[in-house]
Design a protein that fits this description.
This protein has a 3-stranded antiparallel beta sheet. The protein has a two-stranded antiparallel sheet with strand order 1-2. 42% of the residues lie in helices and 14% in strands. It is an alpha+beta fold. It has 6 helices and 5 strands.
Length: 141
Amino acid sequence: MSQNHRDVGHQTETHDWDPELVPDRRGRTRRPEAGCPVEVALAAISGRWTTLVLRELMHGPCSFGDLRGRLPDLSAKILSERLRELTARGLVARERLPGFPVRTRYVLTSTGARLRPLLVQLYETGTVLLDAMAVTPPDAR
């Protein structure tokens, strides 16, 4: 049996996994799986406005009002939902500040801060894709 074949239960696995793209078993799947690290990362940043809220929090802690001011087209309802989701995902922490009236600010957790390179890479890739879509070959007209 060649190096590329391994017995997996009653089946033989013949797929060559790219060790950079799939460094461990969790990503070795043939369909979207909840435990796949890529699926988890994509789900963490999914949702309209989510990446923009994360981008603003990358600059440092923000109050709800700060975020509304920086993203004026984002409704209070959707901002509340996104902050709640990001908090539930462990990417954002909600801090109550001492004093009266009660003030709250939102801050990225260490896990949330780790999304920065991903967001930068997504932006760069999106720029390349937009540029590629803008160039229409003469045959396609």
